[in-house]
Structures are given as structure tokens and as C-alpha cells.
Inverse folding.
């Protein structure tokens, strides 16, 4: 096989898209800011109820200013986009406020933790041409995932039949893990918060949003002192086009792994498979791909060769009111499955 | 981690257990004969309706004699064990005849293809102290699988939570693939014939025979000309102790792989995981193990270090009428799940 790459170029003049960050509860905010700035964004304002969180982000982006209220930012006409990693069950509420202020909104996953929140966001979206974007970073920040999409489209593994995903994290109780981290009502639960990443990949790589939950399980094996926390979860999905999905997420990785190294997405097709994940890379790089098909077997380093098309599209969507980065119908399908998986899960003792 | 091994020793004087082979439809018969001879068995007779099959086996075991009828073998008092790889839907019938003749029976998987056959075998077993053994060779012929069992017992990966299994085969139509190969009524179907191997491993490694089928799927993606054949299958299991199982079996491996190299069993526990399979061995050896736990990560070559305890136990069971190699209740649990998975499978178009 020959591997060819088309690299994303910065779509607009640097700084053209002015954005602000409100609600900084998850560290993902840093990557979101960085990726936006790389693609033409400029972080003008930072706000969080907790001034220390705002100061921490400013350290990374010294040109940004800390604002004393969210309202002030929402009134700044120069700001076209508000981004947030506020606690998951508050993401919809903030998004609605942002949309009503005539701005685009870009939040971390999981963006909504109840069906009511989904409906409330949909209602507001009907009244505006602004967007509600979500960062499903497992795929959106992964060059190999974008490259896999291209290869699958080109038929490299034939018809997709099964998507196996495992993602194991190290759980170390520390100061960054505050109340909401251990409360599934606030974070959407393990199948919501982490599961939605993998559900998103399933819908994407299966090419089918009409996907049903077959079953799901949740368990708290090693963290009894947090009664509203799960450290193990799995689920099975079946798409209307026949693609079977098996997903596991957990907080049980040995501490020495120090991260989510054991993260594998195996997309199995009629003519071969593609495996994405940190697993195959001794350097700890997450943009690696293993592909095996009728032509042979390849270990491909994708880092730096593709860029992040999602961020390019998102910046353009904000400037030109197009809708190419991520459609809300897709977000809705993902989140509904995640909420269902979390709610219907068999609790394993 | 320190790895210590206890090797199986030949349990009896060589040739002590006299056995015969009747019905040689699957090539697994060779490994069954070899493993029995290594552990003290002596192949006295060979019989198949098709004399050519008998001759082919005799080439490998020149001391054995080709017999002109099965009945003659069943009357030979020296023979304590009959082994068979006859077509799957005939295995129970032959087994019943063997048991009624006062001999032990050892057949390839899948040993029974209907619930009626299971009941018929059970009825005969109630009347005899002889045994109905089954070769689930994926585990029984794999030293790493036995070693994994020991490590799990010793707590190396904590509580077992999920068992992920994939097994992909190359499908090449050739002369060895006759009528029964393409007829799921005769071979038990893909979830029966292959699936039962993996179900057996699930019940074994979960330590729980009370396991339910959650869902299963069958498809014929690339072999339309065989209407009663499936080349893709998967299923989900859930054990009463909470162990979740995901199984895929298929005939879709690229031809150049030439075998079942992409064969992985990942046993995920609360303190780490063990992965068994050919995948990790450049030499194509199937007795390799990858273990990752709190102490570190290890790639362990088990070949030659353990031997095959199953065959040692089976030989002793035949000689002393003990029941240590494989219990019929275990076989029954495996086969019932396999039949259910095959019967209830959603047929993916």
C-alpha cells in the first residue's frame, strides 16, 4: 500500500476568529484553546468563577485577559465563539446562554447529561444560525483517526463489520479531581463522560447514526469510598447497517502507566482492519495506526502529516456560518446513546 | 514479576492407554492422537468409512492398524478410549455408541449440534462410569492458556472483569472443505463450531458456568455461493459474577496470513490484563502471553514450559475412572450457549 497525506492548512489569517473561554473545570480547555489558535483563533477573554482557574489558563495564553464576569464577554461583539469545559451537567445551560447572545459555542464532551438538556438546546438552535459544537477529542484531536477515515472511504479494509474499543485510564485521587469528578449526576457517569467519546467513534466509523444500544454495564470495583463513581464500564452497540460495537472504558490501569496508553480502537472490515491507539507506539504517540489488509501489514506514523481538519472546519463554520465540522444531529445521536447506556446499565457488584 | 513453571510429566508408562480413532473428518484428529501418545496413549486402530482418510492418518501413525469396521473396534476389550473428529452433527450419536460399548469417548468440538443430542448423551452418561470428553483445543492445546489460568488464580490481574476474544481465519476453498464445511446444519454453524471454543474459554477464565447470551450476529459477507455458510459472527455474553464477554469469529483474514494468526484472547482484570494469542509472536508460536499489571509489562514465551495438563488428566481419567480433565456439566454449559447463540443470531445482510 502507498500512503499519501493531505495536510490541513491554516484556513484564515491568524487571529481572525476571536474567542473566549468561560468555565474551566476540565483541563481539556488548554488543548481546545491551542488547537483553535493554531487554526486562526485568538483567545481574547478568560472567565471562571474561580479566579485561580482563570489565572492558570492565562499562564498558557498570556495575551488573553481575565474578565470579571461572563456577561461582559457575552456582550463583546468581537467575540464570535465561546468555549467551555465547565462541569458537564452545566454545559447545556451555558451553551443556551451563549447561543441566545448570538455567539457560537464549543464545549467539551459530554455536552449534555439529560434528554431535557438536549431538547432545550435543540429548541434554541431552531432560532439561530449559530452553532453548538462539541469536542470529542479522542477522534477530533487524533490525526490517525482522520487518516483512518480516508483509508476506509477508499476501501482499504472493505465493509466495516465490527468496531472494538477499549480505553483504560489511571485513577489517581489528586487535587484536580474535585466533587464533580466523583458524582455521576454532575459528570454524566463513566458511560456518558468517557463512553460518549467511543460512541462518537462508533457512529463515525460505522457510518451509521441509526445505532441501538444492546446492553451496558457499570461497576465500582476499587473505589468504594466514592459511591457515585464507576471505575469499570462496558457496552455493546448494533448499527442498522450491521456494524457491531463493543466498548470498554475504565479507571483501572496500573498507576505506572500514567495515562491512557491502553487505548485501542480496532475497526474490523471484510478486507482487513485498522487499529488506532497509543498501544503500538513506543514513543507514547497517539497518532499511530496499524493496518492489516490483503496487501500486507503496516505500522504508520501519522503524527504531523494530516493536522486536525475538525479545527479548520470549526473556525470556518464560525466565520462563514457553514456547518462542516460537526452537525448537531450527530451530537444528539451520540449523547442520547450515552445517556441511555448510563441509565440502563446493569450495575455489577 | 517472577514466572515459575511446573511442567506436566507423562503420567503413565508409554502405551498404557490403548485408544482408537473412528471418524476422521477434521484434521484435528492428528493433534489429538499425537497429544495422547505423548501422554502415554497408544493408537491401536484407525477406522473411517472413507479408506483414504484412514490411510492418511496411518501415514502419521504407522504402528496403528486400519480396521475394516467400527464395530470390530468397539468389541476390542483392550481399547479404553475412542477418539473422533467425525462431522459435528454425528459426534453425539457415535459417542453414545462408544459409551454403550463401555468405552470412553473423546471428540473434537463442537461435540453436539442440538439440545436433543445433549439430552441423549446425558441419559447414557447416567448409566455408565465412562466419560464423554471434548477437545476445546484453543485452550486445551495451548500452554499459555494453562499458565494464564495459574497466574489468574494467583491474583496476577485481580478480579476478572472482561474477556475479549477475536479469532480470524483465512478461508480458502480447497479439497479439504467438503459438503459439511459449508452446511451449518452439519457443522453447528460458525458460532457453534468456532464460537464454542471461545465460549469455553469465557466460562473457564470467568470461572462461572452460569453465563447468559446477551446477543449474537451472523453474516455471510464474501461467500454468497455457499448459502448455509457464515464468514462473520460475533456475540456478547454476561456471566452471573459480572464478567462481560465479547467474541468475534470470522473467515475473513487476508489469504497471505495463511492461518489464524489474528487470534487474541484478552482477559482484563481489576489489576491488569493477560493477552494470549499468536499475535505477539513473530515466530508464529501460539503459546505466548502478554501480561500487564501493577508490577510491569511482560512478554512471556510459555512454549515447552508447561506441557498440556488436559491430556495428562484425560489419560488418567480413562485409566482410573477419575473425572479431572473436563466435566460433562462444563461441556453442556458451553454447547448450550453455542447452540443458543447460533439459533438466536441476528442475520446481518
Amino acid at each position: 500500500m502507498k500512503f499519501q497525506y493531505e495536510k490541513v492548512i491554516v484556513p484564515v489569517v491568524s487571529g481572525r476568529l476571536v474567542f473566549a473561554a468561560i468555565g474551566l473545570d476540565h483541563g481539556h480547555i488548554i488543548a481546545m484553546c491551542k488547537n483553535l489558535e493554531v487554526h486562526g483563533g485568538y483567545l481574547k477573554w478568560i472567565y471562571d468563577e474561580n479566579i485561580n482557574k482563570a489565572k492558570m489558563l492565562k499562564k498558557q495564553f498570556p495575551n488573553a485577559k481575565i474578565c470579571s464576569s461572563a456577561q461582559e464577554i457575552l456582550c463583546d461583539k468581537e467575540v464570535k465563539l465561546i468555549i467551555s469545559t465547565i462541569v458537564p451537567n452545566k454545559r447545556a445551560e451555558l451553551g443556551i446562554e451563549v447561543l441566545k447572545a448570538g455567539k457560537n459555542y464549543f464545549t467539551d464532551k459530554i455536552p449534555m447529561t439529560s434528554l431535557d438538556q438536549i431538547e432545550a438546546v435543540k429548541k434554541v438552535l431552531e432560532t439561530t444560525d449559530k452553532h453548538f459544537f462539541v469536542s470529542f477529542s479522542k477522534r477530533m484531536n487524533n490525526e490517525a483517526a482522520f487518516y483512518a477515515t480516508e483509508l476506509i472511504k477508499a476501501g482499504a479494509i472493505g465493509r466495516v463489520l465490527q468496531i472494538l474499543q477499549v480505553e483504560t485510564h489511571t485513577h489517581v485521587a489528586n487535587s484536580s479531581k474535585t466533587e464533580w469528578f466523583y458524582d455521576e449526576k454532575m459528570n454524566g457517569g463513566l458511560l456518558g463522560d468517557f463512553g460518549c467519546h467511543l460512541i462518537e467513534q462508533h457512529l463515525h466509523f460505522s457510518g451509521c447514526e441509526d445505532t441501538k444500544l444492546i446492553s451496558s454495564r457499570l461497576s465500582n470495583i476499587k473505589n468504594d469510598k466514592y459511591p457515585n463513581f464507576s471505575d469499570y464500564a462496558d457496552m455493546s452497540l448494533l448499527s442498522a447497517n450491521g456494524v457491531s460495537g463493543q466498548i470498554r472504558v475504565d479507571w483501572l490501569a496500573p498507576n505506572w502507566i500514567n495515562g491512557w496508553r491502553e487505548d485501542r480502537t480496532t475497526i474490523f472490515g471484510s478486507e482487513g482492519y485498522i487499529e488506532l491507539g497509543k498501544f503500538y507506539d513506543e514513543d507514547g504517540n497517539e497518532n499511530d495506526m496499524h493496518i492489516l489488509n490483503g496487501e500486507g501489514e503496516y505500522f504508520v506514523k501519522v503524527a504531523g502529516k494530516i493536522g486536525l481538519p475538525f479545527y479548520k472546519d470549526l473556525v470556518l463554520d464560525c466565520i462563514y456560518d457553514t456547518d462542516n465540522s460537526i452537525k448537531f444531529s450527530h451530537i444528539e445521536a451520540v449523547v442520547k446513546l450515552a445517556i441511555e447506556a448510563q441509565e440502563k446499565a446493569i450495575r455489577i457488584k
Q: What stands out?
A: The first strand of chain B starts at residue 17 and ends at 22. DSSP finds twelve helices and 15 strands in chain B. The radius of gyration of chain B is 20 Å.
